[in-house]
Amino acid sequence: xxxxxxxxxxxxxxxxxxxxxxxxxxxxxxxxxxxxxxxxxxxxxxxxxxxxxxxxxxxxxxxxxxxxxxxxxxxxxxxxxxxxxxxxxxxxxxxxxxxxxxxxxxxxxxxxxxxxxxxxxxxxxxxxxxxxxxxxxxxxxxxxxxxxxxxxxxxxxxxxxxxxxxxxxxxxxxxxxxxxxxxxxxxxxxxxxxxxxxxxxx
Length: 202
Fold this sequence. Notes:
Strands 1-2 form a two-stranded antiparallel sheet. The protein has helices spanning 2-19, 75-79, 96-109, 111-114, 138-141, 145-154, 167-184; strands spanning 81-82, 85-86. It is an all-alpha fold and 202 residues long. The protein contains seven helices and two strands; from the N terminus they run ααββααααα.
């Protein structure tokens, strides 16, 4: 019992000695239990430095970086909206190179959930993660290009945001999604003659 009281008393004295005078003024350096990140091994902006060859801490932003407060003259390209409404049309040149890029980005980022043809039957559906949209439903065939772009950017429902994908690549994915939709629901007048359906003869 005496040992316990001695230990308890010593701990009490230690606590008072260390924390009991917290907030008092003194010319001596106080005992610091928690530094609270007062001193951090970091660089401060606009200060010289010898680590980087330019001799400065500030880095040049990556190409294409747009600060949040900057107004751009291409709002549709970045938001998918025209005057507050979802816009129609893809604001980049559509060619085979863009579609190939869209296919590549789609396979990397989208196919796992939406499937190879965009039918919403990706490999995740085999593991209980159901609910991926099929691009071939009337809802998504009629959806504006800008809204699809916005969905890729910000996500929707179970789908997370993909704003880390380059803006042009997001539009390339939109173009490829339209190509997938057309491949499954092309009107007869767009089919080559050898592929057009032949009417049944009586």
